[in-house]
Amino acid sequence: MTTLLSLERDHPAPLYRQIYGSFRARVLAGELRAGDAVPSTRDLARELGVSRIPVLEAYGQLLAEGYFEARRGAGTFVSAALATHDEEKRQMRGERRVSANAAALPPYERPSWAERLGAFQLGQPELRAFPVSTWSRLVGRYSRNVPVRALQYGDAFGLVALREAIAAYLRTSRGVRCDAGQVFIVSGSQQALDLSARVLLDAGDPAWVEEPGYWLVHHVLEAQGCRIVAVPVDNEGLNVAAGTKRAAKARVAFVAPSHQSPLGVTMSASRRLELLDWARRAGAWIVEDDWDSEYRYDAKPIASLQGLDRNARVVYTGTFSKVMFPSLRLGYAVVPPDLVERFAAMRRAMDLCPPYLAQAPMADFLAAGHFARHLRRMRPIYARRRRLLVDAIAREIGAEVVGDAAGMHVAMFLDRCRSDVDLAARALERGVQVSPLSASYLGKPRQGLVLGFGNTPESAIAPAVRKLAEALEPA
Ligand SMILES: Cc1ncc(COP(=O)(O)O)c(C=O)c1O
Fold first, then answer.
1. Which residue, 261, 222, 218, is CA-closest to 122?
2. Cα of 291 to ligand 1 centre, how many Å?
3. How would you class 244 by CB atoms within 10 Å of its CB: exposed for 0-12, middle for 13-18, buried for 19 or more?
């Protein structure tokens, strides 16, 4: 640790006084906080190139005045008693305005998954089954032999090897029409959605979102100051006619056509064509959030909307959060060829480039077939969990889940429930972490629940649904 103290040898004040004064000023300015360790007198004397005597004198005075405290065997620290003064100092004064867009965002709450993982938590894959040893071997290989060039800033698009592996995967598995030149590596699909909004929308522009829909799309649009137009979702997906009635001239439609969030509906072929036709006529863009469609249990995966598009109006986004693991923070956007350069310029403004040490092993993981193998292994595991969950809900709650057999969550309507928020709170008291459906609506909500089954072991499913049924009818 360096202490950022500087001494002036020809200063009229003696050395001990300068050392004392520097520490005191830094404590009072809040730069050194209660409980921070300070260097030993020996280390500080060596660092400053002075004898130990002035340092001992300065520390003696700081201890005597209560700025420092000595803890036997541990060293010297900024006094814990200063904590309350620190707090007072941290109260900032004067006008402290932030942008209207930042002020309008809903308050940040620590996400429940940061506290603990429990049955039915949304968005969590079965991390215990992830092939950690294969992954760490690849990470280890690249960390040990990292080429010096790779320590430098990379390209805003991402690593070529990974972009090629993703393009090949998306062409064959998702029917996306693309080459590697259109692929951007981003930090999860959240960044892809944000990047798309920044490139395609101005403040005040109307944008369609699905109702109910993915709450973090709402936040992206709020952060941009856009006009959010909630378009209802029925059992064929986004209702294009309703959207046209509400805002025919919207600039962008954000949709999850393969597996809608949260209802789990797959958009019908006729709706897809209708949506593409609207975009062509309105000169609008579509942002396709293809976030969990690797997992379908009843039929073959549904091809992407982007693959149907003949007018290059779709930005396709996807993520490795669900098949790999969420903290990897790797996702991708596939961009129409004529937008590639503008996306690159915006991506660089947001965040220079993605991290090499995540991308290089990911490229190998895909190319060597580990990704496909992991998917094949997980599909029947999730399929069984989903079947068990759907059966238990029918048995214990008497409700039917909506949506297709896909992804890692199910949703159900509970129209007779007075408050799904209260219900979720009662379930949490019983150790079950369900999400209220009403939270996914911008307008008048329907009551219901959304349950993730990705990280809920088979044996935990029926008991957790039983607890949920108890929460449904409080005594
Ligand atoms: C609808 C939807 N889109 C995208 C994502 C993925 O986000 P990310 O790739 O940023 O982890 C999620 C995560 O749960 C989601 O629910």
1. 261
2. 6
3. middle
- Residue 123 CA to residue 111 CA, distance in Å, equals 12
**Comparing 408 with 83, which gets the higher pLDDT?**
408
pTM given for the model: 0.87
The separation between CA 392 and the C-alpha centre of its own chain, rounded to angstroms, equals 30
The identity of residue 256, as a single letter, is A
| pLDDT-based confidence at residue 5 (cuts at 50, 70, 90) | confident
| C-alpha torsion sign, points 116, 117, 119, 123 | positive
Q: CB within 6 Å of ligand 1 — which residues? A: 123, 188-190, 214, 256, 261, 289, 291, 319, 321, 326, 331
State which of 121, 185, 189, 330 you would mutate to test the pocket of ligand 1, scoring each by most atoms of that ligand within 8 A of its C-beta: 189
Instruction: Report d(CA 122, CA 124) in Å as an integer.
Output: 6
The DSSP output letter for 429 is H
213's tokens: 């829909």
Give dist(CA 296, CA 321) in Å, integer: 16
Q: Name the residue among 440, 461, 458, 457 with its Cα closest to residue 449.
A: 440
Domains, the chain, in order of start with CATH, read: 15-90 (1.10.10.10), 132-371 (3.40.640.10), 376-472 (3.90.1150.10)
Rounded-to-integer distance, Cα 357 and Cα 152, Å? 12
- Does position 460 have pLDDT exceeding 60, yes or no? yes
For range 279-305, the mean pLDDT: 91
Percent of the chain with pLDDT over 90: 83
**How many Cβ atoms sit within 10 Å of the Cβ of residue 48?**
18
Q: Is the dihedral of CA 192, 332, 437, 228 positive or negative?
A: positive
Q: Angle formed by the axes of helices 132-144 and 356-367, to 10°?
A: 130
Residue 12 has a pLDDT of 83
What does the alpha-carbon distance between residue 32 and residue 4 come to, in Å, rounded to a whole number? Answer: 11
